[in-house]
Amino acid sequence: MIKTYFVFYIFLYSILCSSWAQTRDPGAIIGSSQVKKYEKESFFLYGTEHLKLSQNYFDIPVVYNKQVRKWIKYFETRGRGFFERYSARAGRYAPILGEILERNGMPRDLIFLAMAESGFNNKAKSWAKAVGPWQFMPYTGKRFGLKINWYIDERRDPIKATLAASQYLAKLHDMFNSWELAAAAYNAGEGKIGRAIKRYKTHNFWKIAKGRYLKPETKNYVPKIMALAIIGKNLSHFGFHDIDFDKPLDFEEIVLPPQTDLYKIAEALDLSFDDLHYLNPELRRWFTPLDMISYRLRVPPGYKNRWEANVQRIGEFKANDFQRYRVRSSRSNLRDVAKKLKVADYVLESLNGIKKWSRLKRGQLIVLPFKKGHSRKEKMYADLYEKPRKSVLRKRAWRKRLKRALKRGKRIRVPSQYYTVKKGESLWSIARRNRVSLDTLIASNYKLIKRRSIRSGDRLVLR
Asked: Would you say residue 311 lies in a domain?
């Protein structure tokens, strides 16, 4: 599990002091290993003597084969823009990520796994709902001590997530005794890799990858990491001479009570809300969590002194600009309101001081955790109202189907026959029953169909 906050921040302070003291090496991404020839746990990259690389040593096994060369070529050409953006962000996060990995007994060059996962983007989110720089799934994140609830998502915090990733990768390496298999398991799951080992009776990743059991994503994952490591430690050789690295992560901390309005804090410090959120990516809302005794908020260097002048009037920064909901039915309870508005019921319990099963009165006002003036479409609430992937795919497929129908179908401009939709009918069944082209049916009723699905009682142009 992740260390207690006291131990964690003592540890963090020592990391920052040592990490930011490093000088930049324009030939390599800072944060990667600086292993030399005869050091313990160093791996030499064979087969690249003709390239005359400046750095051939890594603290994870790296090979130069057909699969790795394919990814190197990709990042030199079509993926060049991606690599440049990843590397720019690496200037901000890779030094401290590498330091955390090393202090937890992990190879520094595992920063290239994070680079492959997210490009060091704290806001990265996959279709499978993996989140943050290390792309933790919710279950795995919680399993390794990351807090994920309505208020915060520590998977987005580069420091806390790296501590968790160190523990997870250590476990995977202990299971498989191979960094290639550990990386593959990080992508596909330890169960999948365990079954692959039994199926092919080998612990050699490259032999397993020749089979059909692993998905192409996992087969490509390991060589992609290796390609990033080779380029990342030999930037100039591969033509990356002028990467504009972001400044290393740096901050101070102030301690705030629960339910503190971050907009008011930003205003008092003469910062924007986005500036605060940039340093505190784990925060999902506009006020500090109600379920914590205190919250350690990161602020830019030098701003802690500014805050000291405001500590005495901390009560003025309490969040109170909440939206309110008027209960419409005397048969509903707080849990019904939470479900309707997609808010965690324990949040409404805390804000309103009543239990989720308590019966509500008609006309009663319920405090909601949305800020006055905020639309529910704000990015801050996007996670509450995002639609499942399957529905998004269905909607995209339907749009394509409509577009195709408009090209192929004949639009009837002067109708001679109409059809009233009955319950349970679809456009396909109506077209088939009446022996008309589905494309023509769609094209002739496009104004209605483009807005919504057909309903019982709709009047459609048939002929």
From this structure: yes
| Catalytic residue flag (residue 117) | yes
In this predicted structure, the answer to whether residue 21 has a pLDDT above a threshold of 50 is no
Residue where a domain stops, chosen among 294, 317, 340: 317
- Residue 446 is part of which domain span? 389-461
Across the range 232-249, mean pLDDT stands at: 94
Whether 293 and 343 map to the same domain: the answer is: no
pLDDT number for residue 424: 85
Three-class secondary structure of residue 371 per DSSP: strand
Closest CA to 94 of 107, 119, 111, 116: 111
- pTM for the full predicted model: 0.80
14: left (phi over 0), alpha (psi -120 to 50) or beta: alpha
What sign results for the dihedral spanned by CA atoms 283, 285, 287, 292? negative
| Range 207-210, long-range pairs (CB < 8 A, 24+ positions) | 208/184, 209/67
Q: Which residue has the higher pLDDT, 378 or 141?
A: 141
Closest by CA position to 348, among listed 317, 328, 325, 380: 325
Residues 208 and 351 in one domain: no
Of 264, 76, 97, which Cα lies nearest the Cα of 169? Answer: 97
Q: Is residue 259 part of a domain?
A: yes
Catalytic-labelled residue, pool 39, 102, 117, 425: 117
pLDDT single digits (tens) 42-101:
899 999 999 999 999 999 999 999 999 999 999 999 999 999 999 999 999 999 999 999
138 with 282, same domain: the answer is no
